[in-house]
Write a structure and sequence with these properties.
The chain has three helices and five strands; from the N terminus they run αβββββαα. Strands 1-2-3-4-5 form a five-stranded antiparallel beta sheet, covered by helices on one side. The longest helix has 20 residues. By secondary structure, the chain is an alpha+beta fold.
C-alpha cells in the first residue's frame, strides 16, 4: 500500500467519523445478507461494506470498511490494522454490530412488490 499523506488521512477520518455518527444515530441503516461475510449500507449513492462478519469479541480478525460509488469502479478500503485509521474502523464495527445484533438477515435477491413496482412502473 502506498503511503497516505496527512491531508488524506484527515479527510478520511472526518468521513469515517461522519459514517460512525450517522450509524450511531440510526440515520444510516446497515443490513446483513443471508450467507454473507459482511454488512452493507447505501449512503450518498455509495455502497458501504463492512466485514467480515465475525463475533464482536474476535479482535484478531482484521475488519475492513469498503466504500464504492454506484457509478464508478473506484473505491476506498481501510482495515482495522491501519495505524492511523484502524481505531475508527473498529469503532464503526462495534456500532454496526450493536445496531444489527437483533435483526434477522435478509435476502437481497427476494422478489418484492417494491422491486416489481420500480421495474414495471
Amino acid at each position: 500500500m502506498a503511503a497516505r499523506d496527512s491531508t488524506t488521512t484527515i479527510r478520511l477520518r472526518a468521513l469515517f467519523a461522519q459514517i460512525l455518527s450517522l450509524t450511531t444515530s440510526g440515520e444510516l441503516r446497515w443490513e446483513r445478507r443471508y450467507g454473507s461475510a459482511h454488512r452493507y449500507s447505501n449512503w450518498n449513492n455509495n455502497l458501504l461494506i463492512l466485514g467480515p462478519d465475525v463475533a464482536p469479541d474476535d479482535e484478531r480478525t482484521p475488519r475492513y470498511l469498503l466504500i464504492t460509488p454506484f457509478d464508478s469502479p473506484e473505491c476506498i478500503e481501510v482495515n482495522s490494522n491501519d495505524d492511523e485509521l484502524g481505531d475508527i474502523v473498529r469503532a464503526l464495527v462495534r456500532a454496526v454490530d450493536e445496531k444489527v445484533a437483533g435483526e434477522p438477515p435478509r435476502d437481497p435477491f427476494a422478489v418484492t412488490d417494491e422491486l416489481l413496482s420500480r421495474l414495471t412502473g
